[in-house]
Amino acid sequence: MRITKATVDGAWRRRRPDFRLTIRDAECRGLALVVNPTGMTWTVSYKPRGLDSRTGKRPSTREVTLGTPATHSPEQARTAANKVKGEAKGGADPAKDRRVAIAKAARDRAATVARLVQEYTTALPNRPKMRGTGTLSARALEEETRNVRLAVATMKVEERSISDVTEADVRALLTKEAKRPATARYRFGALSRFLEWCREEGLITVNPCLAIGKNRRPRPAKPRTHHLTIPDLASLWHATAAAETDASESDFGSVHRDYVRFLLSVPARRVEATRLEWQYLDLETASWTMSGKLTKNGDPFRVPLPSIALGILRERHRAMGKPRAGLVFPSPKAGKALTTFSAMKAAMDKASGLTGWTWHDFRRSFVTVLAEHGVAEAVADAMLNHRQAATRGGVLGVYQQARRIPEQEAAMRRWNELLVAAVEGRTLGEGVVFPLAKSTR
Predict the structure, then answer these.
(1) 259 lies in the same domain as 372
(2) Where is the Tyr recombinase domain (predicted)?
C-alpha cells in the first residue's frame, strides 16, 4: 500500500508483543515501515550493481535503516530511500559504506588523543630509548609525559581522534610557543615521539611532525656559558637573609633560604635538591646518596657534603624534630617539593642586585671555580654526575669506571674553604676552616 501518516498511526496501534509487522510502500520500491513492539523504523532494500567476482552472481540484497517516523515523514522517507537507491545505481554500496563509517567512528572514539596519551604513559617505562640503550629514568619519564600532555593541551586536540591530528595542529603548537624556543623544542620533541609510537601501533600512517620542515622546527638553544664568581655567590648567600626579612612581599621563608644556600654549597640540580629526603642523607659521614631513579641520567650517585652544607642540614634536622624520612625542603604551605623557582629568583634578584643568572649557573660556577684552583676537570665533571661528557665519553667511559672518591672529597673541601671564606668576608687562609667530615666507607 501507499504508506501515509494514517498508515503509520494505525500500524502503531496494531503492534503486539512478539510480533514484527513489515509494511512495504507501493509508491517507492524497496521502502518499508518495520513495526516492532517497542518502536518503528524506515528501511530501504536494494541490490548493489555488478556481479560477485568469486561467484559470478548478483550480490545479495542489502538493507539500510533510514530513521523513524519521528525523524522522517512518509514523503521524507521516500526521498531518503530514492537517494540510497541512486547511490547504489551509481556503483556505491551504501550499507557497506555505513558499516565502515560506524566502525571508523567507534575506532575514533576509542582512539582519542587523551586516551592514547594515557596508554603511552603506561607503555613508556618499558619502551627503549630512541638514542642509547636502556629505558628512561624516572625523572625523564616524568618530563616526557608532562611535555606530551602540555603539547596536546596547547593544540586543544584532547578529545579528537588521533587520525585527525594534522600538520596544521603541530604548526599551531610551534606558533604558540614561538617566544619560548626551549619550551617549543621540548614540547615538539615529546609530541613527535608520542606520534611515532602511535604510528608504530598502527593508529596513524604518518607522523605529522615529520611534515614540518627542518627549517621550521625548534632549534636547540645555545649552551649557556655564564657563571658566577665566588664573591657573587657570597652575595646571593647573604641575599637569602634579606629576602627572608622582606617575606611580606616575596613569601620567602626559612625553607627557601636554606634551599638556596644548599644549592650554593652543593653542585646539585635544583630538582634533585627539591626531592632530597632525609633517608638519603648520612649526617655522620657527610654524604648524600641518590639512587638511579632520582638522577637525571639514571646512574646512582654519591655526593660528599661540605661542612657549610652539613651545617644547614643539621640545623634543619634539629628544627624539624630529627625526622628519619620525608622531604628536607618541604613547601611551607603544601608540604610538597618546592616549585616556586621563579618567585624565589625574583626575591633573590631584588635582595642582591644581581640579575641574569639562572639556577643551573651554580653548577657551572662550581666546576669553573674549582678548575681555576687546580682541581682536575675529570674530577670536577664526575662531581656533576655527567655520564657522557668529554672527560668520560667513548672508550674511556666504557673502561674507566673509577669514581675517584678521595679526589672528589678533596675537591669538596677546597670548595668549602673558598665559599666559607667569601661568605665570612675574609681572605682565604684567614680564620678557621671547617673540613669535610671524613668518610667511613
Answers:
(1) yes
(2) 223-413
Number of domains making up the chain: 3
Among candidates 234, 274, 229, which has minimal Cα distance to 364? 229
Q: What percent of the chain stands above pLDDT 90? A: 60
What is the amino acid identity at position 351? A
Domain span including residue 37: 5-92
| Three-state secondary-structure class, residue 362 | helix
Cα distance between residue 102 and residue 13, in whole Å:
33
CA 375 to chain centre: 38
Q: Find, among 132, 141, 94, the residue nearest to 295 by Cα.
A: 141
* 222 within a domain of the structure (yes/no): no
Considering only residues 57 and 63, tell me which one the structure prediction assigns the higher pLDDT.
Answer: 63
Contact 3, 9 (CB under 8 A): no
Which cell numbers hold the place of 288?
648524600
Using DSSP, state whether 135 is helix, strand or coil.
coil
What CA–CA distance (Å, rounded) separates 277 from 34? 71
Task: Determine the Cα–Cα distance for residues 204 and 185; give it in Å rounded to an integer.
Answer: 23
Q: For residue 30, what pLDDT is reported? A: 93
Element (H, E) at 6: helix 5-13
What number is the average pLDDT over the span 209-220?
90
State the first-to-last Cα distance of the chain, in angstroms, to the nearest integer: 99
| Average per-residue pLDDT for the chain | 86
